[in-house]
Amino acid sequence: MYPAFGSLQVILLAVLCVIATLVLCGRPRNLPPGPRGLPIVGNAISLLKGALPLVYTDWSKKYGDVFTVYFGPRLTIVLNGYAAIHEALVKNAENFSSRSPSHAMRTPDGKTLGIAAEPYGPKLKEHRKFAMMSLRDFGVGKRSLEGKILEEARGLGDEICKTEGRPFCISQMMQNAVSNVICSIVFGRRYEYDDMAFKDLLNAINGVFSRSFAVIFAQVFRPMRILPGVRKPFQKLKRNQAKLINHIRDRIKEHEDTFDPKDIRDFIDAFLLESKKRQGDENSTFTEQEHAAIVYQLFVAGTDTTSTTLRWALLYMILHPDIQEKVQQEIDSVLGPNQEPAMAHRSQMPFTEATLAEVSRLASVTPMTIPHGTSNDTAFRGYNIPKNTSVTVNIWSVHHDPNLWPEPDKFDPTRFLNDEGKYVKRNEVLAFSIGRRVCLGEQLARMELFLFFTSLLQRFTFKLPEGAPKPSEKGIHAALHHPVPFKLIAEPRD
């Protein structure tokens, strides 16, 4: 028995050596430098030891702003720092605006790409153009959507009033309010806060975004899915994705049953209309599968990133009451106690706008973009990068670069004000990325951040509960950068 077992070990070792040799010999030449990895697993073990954006930022000090890592046998180029990211995504957009083929594995069904995972090409351009036009049709950038956002802000304020000065966690309330905005655009409806189906959906979204980096690796590197610490979280992720996609398919079916081409109610109807126009065209990309995938991406992306940014904003307000007071003074001077905010007021509130810019920078809710991919074999900064290589864009490295932001871990809105107190936009804030893959929902998110934030601070002063320790400003790194759970008190303002 034991000799046979020893022979099996030798055979397995030999197989692993052969695979490792093939992988190493097959690696392209003249790649950017990077940390030495292990056979088969590459750098995966080292990358699991800390928060990925922080690890990448630290490695950039040793290997430079462009370096190479391996997730198993998968080659990834990591871009750090504003200069390298801008050079790749803007100046070399033709080469760095695609997605790598492995990205399909991150989608709910592992194959339908939607907009987020689609490689750069005619199909992506067509679907992005359609989505942007449809979002505009349903109010993005218009007063009609401002009204919907303010309606949700009023509802959120009413829920906060029910706490009657008691300490509470605002996470669920905030997510309800923000999610209802995208629901009104995509589904043509909003949900009551106590709707159990709505709560289940939001819990599923939380499950998708709270996945660990180990589970993120497992989405593209299948062997990791069998590891004991990864298998159950990965299965939970798939269940959450299935719950969301099934809900979306149910809403699409309801829309199909009540569809009226003369009454386009929301994004789902708009997609159905476009799909029906193309019936008989065997090359049409407006399919049922793409419909569900795109709505899934809009719904998920339109919920958690904005609500998380707003939670960071309130955390910084309770930790920096002097800044909260200045924001409120500005709101009072422009709006008074009764006038509701509008996007037209934003230019009259430079300190408020500077505060939100600093929240976006310091919190870095999306510390890395969805991985890009190279469209061609390309030369970049003296290195050769093959076609279809995954490219990770480390936004965190820009937002926490001490050469751009003195004392980068300090919350300081004056970074965005000139000597006259006017707001100065800084291109180095990349909360929505840059280049051809810039976030589709940027305009919507900016509207929500300004209107929710000003509405809340016009109505309440937020404080720490008496005797409570100060919450940590160091967040939790997962798919998004979340604040550590905290409680606050909301005092109604006269």
From TrEMBL:
GO terms for molecular function: heme binding; iron ion binding; long-chain fatty acid omega-hydroxylase activity; oxidoreductase activity, acting on paired donors, with incorporation or reduction of molecular oxygen, reduced flavin or flavoprotein as one donor, and incorporation of one atom of oxygen; steroid hydroxylase activity. It is a multi-pass membrane protein. Its main location: endoplasmic reticulum. Heme binds at C439. The keyword Hydrolase does not apply. Residues 1-25 form the signal peptide. It catalyses: (5Z,8Z,11Z,14Z)-eicosatetraenoate + reduced [NADPH--hemoprotein reductase] + O2 = 20-hydroxy-(5Z,8Z,11Z,14Z)-eicosatetraenoate + oxidized [NADPH--hemoprotein reductase] + H2O + H(+); an omega-methyl-long-chain fatty acid + reduced [NADPH--hemoprotein reductase] + O2 = an omega-hydroxy-long-chain fatty acid + oxidized [NADPH--hemoprotein reductase] + H2O + H(+); (5Z,8Z,11Z,14Z)-eicosatetraenoate + reduced [NADPH--hemoprotein reductase] + O2 = 19-hydroxy-(5Z,8Z,11Z,14Z)-eicosatetraenoate + oxidized [NADPH--hemoprotein reductase] + H2O + H(+); N-[(5Z,8Z,11Z,14Z)-eicosatetraenoyl]-serotonin + reduced [NADPH--hemoprotein reductase] + O2 = 2-oxo-N-[(5Z,8Z,11Z,14Z)-eicosatetraenoyl]-serotonin + oxidized [NADPH--hemoprotein reductase] + H2O + H(+). GO terms for cellular component: cytoplasm; endoplasmic reticulum membrane; mitochondrial inner membrane. It is found in: Endoplasmic reticulum membrane; Microsome membrane; Mitochondrion inner membrane. Keywords: Endoplasmic reticulum, Heme, Iron, Lipid metabolism, Membrane, Metal-binding, Microsome, Mitochondrion, Mitochondrion inner membrane, Monooxygenase, Oxidoreductase, Signal, Transmembrane, Transmembrane helix. The keyword Zinc does not apply. PANTHER family: CYTOCHROME P450 2U1, CYTOCHROME P450 508A4-RELATED. A cytochrome P450 monooxygenase involved in the metabolism of arachidonic acid and its conjugates. Mechanistically, uses molecular oxygen inserting one oxygen atom into a substrate, and reducing the second into a water molecule, with two electrons provided by NADPH via cytochrome P450 reductase (CPR; NADPH-ferrihemoprotein reductase). Acts as an omega and omega-1 hydroxylase for arachidonic acid and possibly for other long chain fatty acids. May modulate the arachidonic acid signaling pathway and play a role in other fatty acid signaling processes. This is Cytochrome P450 2U1. It comes from Branchiostoma floridae.
